[in-house]
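The following block was generated as part of the benchmark described in Methods. Ligand: beta-D-galactopyranose.
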Amino acid sequence: MKTLIKTLHAALLSTSLLAAAGAQAADVEVLHWWTAGGEARSVAELKKMLEAKGHKWKDFAVAGGGGENAMTVLKSRVVSGNPPTAAQIKGPSIQEWGAEGVLANMNDVAKAGNWDGLLPPVVANVMKYKGNYVAVPVNVHRVNWMWANPEVFKKAGVAIPKTWDEFPAAAEKLQKAGFIPVAHGGQPWQDFTVFESVVMGVGGPAFYKKALVDLDQASLKGPTMIKALETLQMVRKYIDKDAANRDWNLATAMVINGKAAMQFMGDWAKGEFSAAGKKPGKDYVCLPAPGTANAFTFNIDSLVMFTQKSADAKKGQQDLATAVMSPEFQEVFNLNKGSIPARQGMDLAKFDDCAKQSAADFTASAKSGGLVPSIAHQMAVPAATAGAIQDVVTQFFNSHTMTPKAAADKLALAAKVR
Ligand code: GAL
């Protein structure tokens, strides 16, 4: 019986391969929001690889850090029955799209490429809907980073703070020396990004997980969250008055050109430093956000595959998925993007020390329990819940009257939104 199934399976596989072999070059259309310097360089590599396989790259870029705009555009395209080949969609949202019945089953490609053997389970699980691969990961970003300009700290005569307790004294000195302590862009997703790093630094991984992944009511409105919100209020004092609506990469540029001392942002910021020709350890330093050295808030970018009608389009999609998992792509894309490969067992010789630290911390935190999904980057909870919590964080960040206690109560309420 087993052999019969095996033979049948082999026969089916070879027919589909034959069908695929007869396919022509396809338009491969990929929706993403990678439009900043380092991001655009990463996408250019994917385009090059697809074109080398004879396909036509159709860029579907929707600008807007964090991807909110891109998701809105994607919904209207799918609803009108015209989905792209693939779209950058992350975390629990992949399950929501899976439930709509519009995603392609990539198990054949995954099996041929041994994805189960090459991806850590924490990554592979996110890529599957009901046990079937529907997405392919391009990277692993770490969100709890702080990017600092050492020259600025030197000029101000102060050490880079490693804890939130050390932070205000250092920020005061930076300010007195004429620098903007914290480069920030006042957009909801950026406020949320700083918030989650502060929660991690104040509460530690177990608290972060209870509050922002498990959405435990008592943790959301309890004393640790209130302390985290007080800390966020403190950090807010050190951003400049022009922060409102500034794009994240412009905030990074302020650190690059020495106007500001530091930025709390995931390691796509490193892509900006690299694109500007800056070297880690010399022109800038990467440090875990204060108090988060033993934690890793992960943000996995992934291309989710939509069901395609024609054999050509299917072949283009399979080639896209195969290319993304290749060691060549995982290396060059992530060298530019600031992240580390999602594929395990890669030689990291060409990567810088920040990436090497990220890879080591990913492994260590997976063992210690410090590896947790980023809520600000749609990895932790359903999109509607994350959106409601983000609204509260932004309201609080911009309000001068809301108390941390009132904000914590609102967070707990928002966490009930599904
Ligand atoms: C994140 C995304 C990153 C980066 C960043 C800024 O959500 O995962 O790849 O693009 O937004 O746009």
